[in-house]
Amino acid sequence: MKRKIIEHGTSNAVILPKKWFDKYGLKRGEEVDIEEAGPLLIVSAEKIKSKQECVQIEQKPFIPYVHRVIGKLFQAGYDHIDVNISDKRDMEEAEKESLKNVVGLEIIEKTDKKISFDVVVSDTPEQYAKYERKTFQTAVEYSKFILELIEKKEYEKLNDRTLESLNNKFSIFCERYLSKTLSKNCTFKYVILWNLEKITDEYKYLANFVKEHNIKLSKETKDYFRESIQYLEDFYDLYYSFELTLYSSMYQRKIPLLSKGHKLYLQKQTLEAMAIIRLMNAILGVFDCLGNILALHIQESATITFKAE
């Protein structure tokens, strides 16, 4: 999109696109935020004041994963979702799963032919900041919870998905917020939050496998489990308090950690080896996000210059 610079009194001005202006419910005389980023000038509404974005889908093409589609529509930033019902029994299950997995989603209308959902949680920077931190916290706490249950041999409790479910809810909300605001660096944050959910899933899959096969993890594997948790905690610290020394340390620790995992994998019986793979996947997931954290803080770690062609 291109705009001409026009003269405005003794200053220069650029006309805001009408579609963007209307979408966020702006009015003449209101303030917008302007941020300089080198050659970029980022204009953003002080608050997200978009009109309600609505979408309507047919249930039939998406059976039996309608709940996943509803979740993705929430993530995409839609505020009102209508589903035209063709299978009542499947829709009942989809309704339960949607309400269970998405924070701030409520049913506002339900008939034999249609069900309507509204998003009632506030898409504000304050809410985002709160849930962003909780996404990290629940990922770390869930990994510790699983290891504690394994050490205590309380395998019957490994089905407890409370923390993993909360991690899903918080990360999905954050992804929705970033989709709606398109704020600076949102791509890097989106990838990090998406991966945090997947990292947490690795611990969930490990818990399922250990419980299903009643696996007794060796001391070496438990120690490796702790190292994977420490790597995740360091990632959490790096995100909120970036230090180049910690970034470098985490980057360098990847190969030794994975090498240790490979050696353990070759030493252990098949079932325990499968659990080790999950821990290696979690470590690799954290490592894959390091570049995104560096991108968020690159101006703190390098001198940025611009050269005219």
Describe this structure in words.
By secondary structure, the protein is α+β, with helices and mostly antiparallel strands. It folds into three domains: 5-45; 54-119, Translation Initiation Factor IF3 (2-Layer Sandwich); 125-300, Methane Monooxygenase Hydroxylase, Chain G, domain 1 (Up-down Bundle), CATH 1.20.58.220. It has helices at residues 18-23, 66-75, 88-101, 125-152, 162-181, 186-213, 219-240, 244-267, 270-296, 298-301; strands at 5-8, 11-14, 32-37, 40-45, 54-58, 80-84, 105-110, 114-119. The longest helix has 28 residues, at 125-152.
| Approximate helicity band | 55-70%
pLDDT < 50 runs, ≥5 residues: 301-309
- Count of DSSP-assigned helices: 10
Q: Compute the gyration radius: what is it?
A: 23 Å
CATH architecture of the largest domain: Up-down Bundle
How do the strands of the widest beta sheet line up side by side?
A: 5-6-8-7
**Total domain modules:** 3
Distance between the termini: 22 Å
Q: What does the largest sheet look like?
A: 4 strands, mixed
Q: Output mean pLDDT.
A: 87
Beta content: 5-15%
Number of strands: 8
Question: From N to C, what is the helix and strand string?
Answer: EEHEEEHEHEEHHHHHHH
Gross morphology is flat
Name of the CATH class of the largest domain: Mainly Alpha
CATH fold-level topology of the largest domain: Methane Monooxygenase Hydroxylase, Chain G, domain 1
Assign the CATH superfamily of the largest domain: Phosphate transport system protein phou homolog 2, domain 2
Q: Kindly name the structural category.
A: alpha+beta
